[in-house]
Specification:
heterodimer, A: alpha+beta, Alpha-Beta Plaits, 2 domains, five-stranded antiparallel beta sheet, B: about 575 residues, alpha/beta, Rossmann fold, 3 domains, six-stranded parallel beta sheet, 23 helices, about 15% strand
């Protein structure tokens, strides 16, 4: 199963190495990881998407992460009400004749063109990973030259619904 | 936790103080009396500071970094205090790797200082540069690289705090040469610990204690498993009190030997791969398994499918990550073992109705004791351990390597007290025993310390013979010499179709002459009479002695749970 795990960490040398090294040693597969500063100075937040086979392994990974001295808090937010975003930059082969056609495709996705050259377009899209996957599928026939994705980042929603409502909100089940 | 900064008292001298001087001062403030060290280029400033501090802190120069870190482990095991290690950069640091990993696996507190090349050349593949931070990240509880002299007081304080609290472990501090050689520009400030991500839980949840109390009163076949967490919690007395109060039998792990008196009527002995029949069957058949501070290592559990299959499992551990890692646990209690045991002793618990169970276990003990058969062709290694036990009255500190001799020592040197047994459990390190015994002897100069080692393992760290001579440390070295890597040979014989592949040591040094070349008394013994004759003088001698005890090569450690088998599927339980 795919799980979204967030970890707030002390912004110290080697902390990313510590976290990824730990996951590698305990044989957890990291699908994506994004890191950046938080509202507190000296504290960074990591958002990891990991593939884990069962609950016991999931418990192990959060406990092992928590054990690290530089890790402040670990949460598995997969089953919480969350907002999730990823950003992707996509370079698509495009002659000038195709530009408006591609624009028509990306518009409903609220994606924008951020660079234009004779042979290509660079498109920026933000959203849930599935949305990005969907746009990529539509653009594929035109010839995708390059993709750069940030990996997913997430926040808990301000209002957390009661447990019985949660099923509607979960993302990755 | 932030505390008001205070001025740190430092030595007053006309010379400006270096980072290294500050480091040594900080170590003294932590109460460090002994440094286990080896100098080199990147730690020259630290050795200058040690020179200046001579008379106020003792430095012991080992002959190899692996020897000195195992000695620091032995020191830590006996005292419960962090062993402090100093090594140079590059090869000095990489030679420590085995010892650091060993300490990590067996939760021993160490604070290790490694030299590093100057910050200006880090990353340039400078002479004797190694990426010690990356190398040691997975094998330390935590590590630091000092980036400014001002950080030293905080880092040293945190390093000792992390190493010795919670679940103990090794902490490494990498000190670039320009930091140790650099001069202080201002009076150093008293540091405070700033570790918001490190707050070990030491007190048990009262609700969980109530539940455990309830489970104890309902149990019919309860068993206590006592592990190294009882050592770290210094909770042997409480554990014994609980077992006696409610008549609960006790199995100890390999590292937990001594946490419960082996000669106690409720003791079932050691469990696991080479544990007793009584201990292993108790774990198999019990309906309540109360684990105090053991991590359910695979050498204890055997095949997890058959481990305590009928039991409710309670696990008391200071490290939450150990609970539920290998064995599903219905009663998790994150706590220091002493705190939890004290709480339990305060509970009104109706003692379990376990008379029938105790009767059965006692029958098992009588019917399936540990056994070996004397052989007219030579000396049995098990008998050697029994003879050493007898002459030392079972009171010695015993250190071992890994392998057959280790298992025989665990089986036949019945420990009455905690902190007398020093062995490499988790990592299983050959070459550990002899230097660890040196560390124990340094910690307790007046205690009898015996290194029971194999002929293979001893040859990995025997260079430390220099130290026992130089310091006249009266360590008694008993080489259980079967001319083989015995445990490897045993597995090859039993599990690999008797293909004895590269596990016989065809040539060996003359160990007596070897000892003599270090000015140490040496004996070679080939049979029981010879051993009985010399042992009293060996232990009466106030200095180091080496005994090369030639034993039968084909002797095997039994009982044994073959890999993949369940804890109830022992072989060799009877002659």
């Amino acid at each position: 199963m795919k799980r979204i795990i967030t970890a707030t960490v002390q912004d110290r040398a080697g902390v990313l190495n510590r976290v990824t090294g730990l996951l590698q040693r305990r044989q957890f597969n990291i699908e994506s990881i994004s890191v950046g500063p938080t509202e507190t100075e000296g504290v960074s937040r990591m958002t990891l998407v990991v593939e884990i086979e069962d609950e016991q392994r999931l418990e192990q990974v959060t406990k092992q992460l928590n054990k690290q001295i530089d890790v402040l808090k670990v949460s598995d937010i997969t089953d919480k009400a969350v907002v999730v975003r990823e950003l992707a930059l996509i370079k698509v082969a495009s002659s000038s004749q195709l530009r408006s056609e591609i624009n028509g495709i990306i518009d409903p996705f609220r994606a924008i063109v951020i660079d234009v050259s004779k042979e290509s377009l660079a498109i920026q899209i933000t959203g849930k990973p599935e949305k990005i996957d969907a746009l990529l599928e539509l653009l594929r026939p035109y010839g995708i030259k390059e993709i750069a994705r940030t990996g997913l980042t997430a926040l808990l929603r301000g209002h957390q619904p009661q447990v019985n409502e949660l099923a509607h909100h979960t993302l990755l089940k | 936790m932030k505390v008001e900064a205070k001025k740190l008292e430092v030595q007053t001298s006309t010379e400006p103080m270096t980072g290294a001087d500050l480091l040594i001062d900080l170590l003294k403030k932590e109460g460090v009396e002994t440094l286990f060290g080896y100098p080199g280029g990147a730690v020259l400033p630290i050795y200058d500071a040690i020179y200046r501090a001579r008379g106020t802190i003792e430095h012991i120069l080992f002959r190899h970094e692996q020897g000195m870190i195992h000695a620091a482990e032995g020191y830590a095991r006996v005292t419960g205090k962090p062993g402090v290690v100093i090594a140079t950069s590059g090869p000095g640091a990489t030679n420590l790797v085995t010892g650091i990993t060993d300490a990590m696996m067996d939760s021993l507190p160490l604070v290790i200082f490694t030299g590093q090349v100057a910050r200006s050349v880090i990353g340039t593949d400078a002479f004797q540069e190694a990426d010690v931070m990356a190398i040691t990240t997975p094998i330390t509880k935590h590590n630091y690289q000092v980036q400014s002299i001002e950080d030293l007081p905080r880092i040293v304080k945190e390093a000792f705090h992390i190493a010795s609290t919670g679940r103990p472990g090794p902490v490494l501090v990498d000190v670039p040469k320009d930091i140790s050689a650099g001069f202080l520009t201002a009076e150093p400030e008293e540091a405070s610990i700033n570790l918001p991500g490190y707050q070990p839980t030491t007190k048990p949840n009262p609700l969980q204690i109530k539940k455990l109390a309830d489970s104890i009163s309902k149990a019919i076949k309860p068993v206590i498993l006592s592990g190294a967490g009882v050592l770290h919690g210094k909770a042997s007395a409480e554990l014994t009190a609980l077992a006696e109060k409610h008549q609960i039998p006790v199995v100890t792990t390999l590292l937990g030997l001594g946490t419960f008196p082996a000669d106690h009527p409720l003791s079932l002995g050691m469990g696991g791969m080479h544990g007793t029949y009584a201990a292993n069957m108790a774990i198999y058949e019990c309906d309540l398994l109360i684990n105090f501070g053991a991590r359910f290592d695979d050498r204890l559990t055997g095949n997890l499918k058959h481990f305590a299959p009928f039991a409710k499992v309670a696990h008391i551990d200071i490290d939450p990550a150990e609970i539920g890692k290998n064995v599903p646990t219905s009663l998790p209690i994150v706590s220091d073992t002493k705190e939890a045991l004290t709480e339990l002793l305060d509970q009104e618990i109706e003692s379990p109705n376990s008379a029938e169970w105790l009767e059965k276990l006692s029958q098992n003990k009588q019917e399936y004791p540990l056994w070996y058969k004397h052989d007219p062709n030579g000396m049995c290694p098990q008998w050697v351990i029994e003879a050493v036990h007898k002459v030392t009255n079972g009171d010695a500190i015993v250190a071992t390597d890994v392998g057959q001799h280790q298992m025989w020592a665990a089986q036949y040197y019945t420990f009455k007290e905690p902190h007398r047994w020093i062995t490499s459990g988790g990592l299983g390190t050959m070459g550990f025993g002899f230097p660890a015994a040196i560390g124990a002897q340094i910690a307790e100069p007046d205690s009898t310390v015996v290194a029971i080692v194999g002929d293979g393992g001893f040859q990995m760290t025997l260079q430390e013979l220099s130290i026992v001579y130089e310091r006249n440390l009266p360590v008694k070295i008993i080489i259980v010499n079967n001319g083989a890597l015995g445990m490897v040979r045993q597995w090859q014989e039993l599990l690999h179709g008797n293909r004895i592949s590269e596990s016989i040591l065809h040539t060996q040094p003359n160990f007596v002459k070897l000892a003599e070349s270090y000015s140490i008394r040496g004996y070679q013994v080939n049979n029981q009479e010879e051993l009985i004759t010399i042992l009293p003088e060996v232990f009466a001698h106030n200095g180091p002695v080496l005994v090369d005890a030639r034993v039968l090569q084909q002797e095997k450690v039994f009982p044994m749970i073959a890999p993949g088998k369940g804890i109830h599927e022992m072989i060799g339980v009877k002659p």
